[in-house]
């Protein structure tokens, strides 16, 4: 069996706590009585509008119709603006891709021209080297007598004529390549100018069509509004339908 200690209650302490609690409750009730709100006094006034119920209903219906038209017009404007933005984005991407393709094509053409020039130059040097090897041991044209031309002089003359023909052919091909590049550059510039004019015309046509569409929507809205506000305008003289 566990031992325990019995403590007798303190009656004086308990009475003090009860008195304190009673005093606090009394103070709370007295504060509530002092701060109780008084009666509400309002001046009499007339409630409601200065229009009849039918007029209020008609005005409410008119505002509802206008709000519907406005919301529909806003939705159409949002759709058109979104569509125009998407088309502009697509056109921009196409223009970027076109410019990249044109730059790549120009780069390829330049590389091809450089390769051709290097090849022709290398061919020219190789041909000269071969002809110089063939010319070894042959007399010069100044030391040769015209009256006593032998087989060696004839060979040197043929080689000299052949080299000169090669040089002329090389110069002619280079000139043709330059002219071809010049014509391609002029054609590309003309093509870019035409594309720029076409894009400008397309943009102007798109702006004009958008303006015409908005004008038609506004005119249709005004016509419907006028027909609803003036239902007897059909029977008036001069109505065109």
UniProtKB/TrEMBL annotation:
Residues 34-53 are annotated as: Disordered. Keywords: Coiled coil. The keyword Coiled coil applies. It comes from the Eukaryota. It comes from Aramus guarauna (Limpkin). InterPro entries: EPSTI1. This is ESIP1 protein. Residues 163-197 form a coiled coil.
């Amino acid at each position: 069996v566990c031992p325990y200690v019995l403590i007798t209650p303190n009656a004086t302490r308990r009475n003090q706590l009860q008195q304190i609690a009673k005093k606090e409750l009394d103070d709370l009730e007295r504060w509530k009585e002092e701060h109780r709100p008084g009666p509400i006094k309002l001046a009499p006034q007339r409630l409601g509008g200065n229009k009849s119920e039918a007029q209020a209903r008609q005005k409410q219906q008119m505002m509802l119709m206008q709000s519907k038209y406005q919301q529909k017009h806003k939705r159409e404007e949002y759709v058109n603006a979104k569509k125009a933005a998407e088309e502009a984005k697509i056109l921009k991407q196409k223009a970027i891709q076109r410019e990249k393709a044109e730059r790549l094509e120009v780069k390829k053409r330049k590389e091809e021209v450089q390769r051709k020039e290097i090849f022709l130059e290398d061919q020219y040097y190789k041909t000269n080297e071969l002809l110089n090897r063939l010319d070894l041991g042959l007399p010069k044209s100044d030391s040769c007598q015209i009256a006593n031309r032998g087989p060696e002089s004839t060979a040197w003359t043929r080689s000299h004529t052949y080299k000169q023909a090669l040089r002329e052919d090389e110069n002619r091909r280079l000139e043709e390549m330059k002219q071809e590049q010049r014509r391609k550059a002029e054609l590309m510039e003309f093509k870019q100018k035409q594309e720029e004019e076409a894009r400008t015309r397309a943009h102007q046509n798109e702006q004009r069509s958008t303006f015409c569409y908005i004008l038609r929507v506004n005119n249709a809205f005004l016509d419907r509004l006028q027909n609803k506000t003036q239902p007897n305008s059909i029977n008036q003289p001069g109505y065109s339908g």
